[in-house]
Amino acid sequence: MRKLTFALFLTFAGLLGLTLAATAAPAAAPAQTAGPAKDALAARAGQEVFNQRCFQCHSTVEAQVRVGPSLYHVMAKPHPRKTPAEVRTLLLNGKDKMPSFKGILTAADTDNLIAYLHTL
User: Fold this and answer.
1) Confidence band of 111 (pLDDT split at 50, 70, 90)
2) DSSP 16-28
C-alpha cells in the first residue's frame, strides 16, 4: 500500500510540475516595456506628478479655471494648444502666475507629466 501511495504521489508531483512549467511566464522578461504599456505607465506616473504639483492650480475638467487654466485637451490631437517643447519651457521657466519647476521636477517627471497631459 505504501508503494502505491508513493507511486501516486510521484505521478501527481510530476503532473503538477509539468502543468506549472507549461503555464509559467518566460524566465527572462524584456528589460524595458515598449509601446502602449510604456505609455500607460508613464501617463500613470505623470498623473501622480500632476496631483502633487499641478492640481492646486490647474483643473483637468474642460473650462474649469482655478488659479491657472484648465489643462483639459491642452495636448490633444489633432490640434494641441501646447507642444511638448512649450510645456517643457513653461515648466522650466514658469510664466506669469506659474512658478518655475526648475530643480523641482526631474526630466522623468516632466516626460511623465507630458505623457499624462496627452491623455486629457
Assistant:
1) very high
2) HHHHHHHHSPPSS
Three cell numbers written together for 59: 483643473
Nearest CA among 50, 39, 44, 42 for reference residue 91: 50
What CATH number labels 38-117?
1.10.760.10
| List of residues 6+ apart from 46 with CB closer than 8 A | 109, 111, 112, 113, 114, 115, 116, 117
Residues 5-28 have a mean pLDDT of 42
CA-to-CA dists, residue 80 to 47, 63, 108, angstroms? 19, 15, 22
Per-domain residue ranges of the chain: 38-117
What confidence tens digit (pLDDT) does each residue in 99-108 have? 999 999 999 9
pLDDT, residue 75, reads 87
